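Progress narrative, work stream C.
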Amino acid sequence: MRKNSIKNTRINGEVQKELSKLIQNEIKDPRIAPMTSVVAVEVAPDLKTCKAYISVLGNEQECQDTLAGLKSAEGYLRRQLAHTVNLRNTPEIRFVLDQSIAYGVTMSKLIDDVVSGIHREEGEEENESEA
């Protein structure tokens, strides 16, 4: 895959910013969780398609409901995006669930558990050597 040009990077950022605004302020679908964020956007160089990576703070059911709500609002979002972002073609949006934030939180918790276990073992060894 070729490297993104400066123009493509700027388009990605602009589309991400506008999608975030639209999802937070315009969509009233109750299926969409209030803590939904657009993590990244990849617009194809021909401006025909776009992958929007979505992160949802909540359980698995809320994630699936949010994806279903966004999929049903796809046409509305594309039309609003056409009004706000001046592009030759308005890309067809495909939403992808991004689990990287949840994965990072899980890994951080596991690391903290291991570190606290090591500190407990060191404390027990010091108590045994003092006795």
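Work stream C, second folded protein:
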Amino acid sequence: MDTELQKALKFLRNVADRNGYLLNPDLRTLERIALSMVENRRNHKRYFCPCKQHHPVNAEVDPVCPCDESKDEIRRDGFCDCHVFFDESGYEHAKMRPGLLSTVACPG
């Protein structure tokens, strides 16, 4: 696995651990989202939120991960819009709906 991808996944794990979240259990989806973040870091030196960024990235206004809205999204839905971070109930619900996690539309 690419070293930059490993660093991005470690970053996401650290954010999850600090906030009591769980990461998306679908590794393929999680890696796809993390690769978008790796590209952002290569090009713009930051992990911009892959679901809320402009295309192309606008480094002056695009939010970095975890975005400010993620806590409210997780509290409301059980997961953030990017489907990276889950609370326990959102995680369990997603595991009971096969295929749900593979339908995430971001990164845009």
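Residues 27-44 form the longest helix (18 residues). No further action is required on this item.
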